[in-house]
Amino acid sequence: MKRYDDWKARLFAESNRQTKLAHVWGIHDCVVGLGGGAVMAMTGEDIVADLRGRYDSPEGAAELLAELGFASLGDAVASRLPEYVHPSKANVGDLCVVDVAGPLGQAIGLIDQPHINILTPSGRGILAHRHMSRAFKV
Does 1 reside within a domain? Predict the structure, then answer.
């Protein structure tokens, strides 16, 4: 996977586009919206095409992960993107996993400086880098 030469401008445009969208499980959530949208904007590759629209709740997402043989959201991401040995090695535009309360126990974040962008059912948020438990190269 290779980023476009102008990936920063593309990511900025995608991030602005996403701020106008409501959270919808399986359509615009942390996986297919935030993470998948960012990867698509930066590389042109749709790494979540097979997941989009296949669940409509957090419980449905957890069921789909189990059906696909993944023990966690992080394991699913690791099947699609190379994982850093340590999250501190990640760069702007890479994806990460943060631990959260809820049925999945994890969420996908987009690494920015000086924070991580996240998407929750109530909208966009930010977390400090120290909240990353895993990170993946885009």
Answer: no
Q: Is 99 exposed, middle or buried (0-12, 13-18, 19+ CB in 10 A)?
A: middle
- Residue 77 belongs to domain with CATH number: 3.90.1720
Q: How many domains are there within the chain?
A: 1
Domain that holds residue 122: 7-136
The tens digit of pLDDT for each residue in 26-53 reads 999 999 999 999 999 999 999 999 999 9
Within the chain, how many helices (H) and strands (E) appear?
4, 5
Query: What is the Cα–Cα distance from 71 to 20, expressed in whole angstroms?
Result: 32
Cα separation values, 49 from 5, 44, 100, Å: 23, 12, 24
The model's pTM is 0.94
Residue type, 73: L
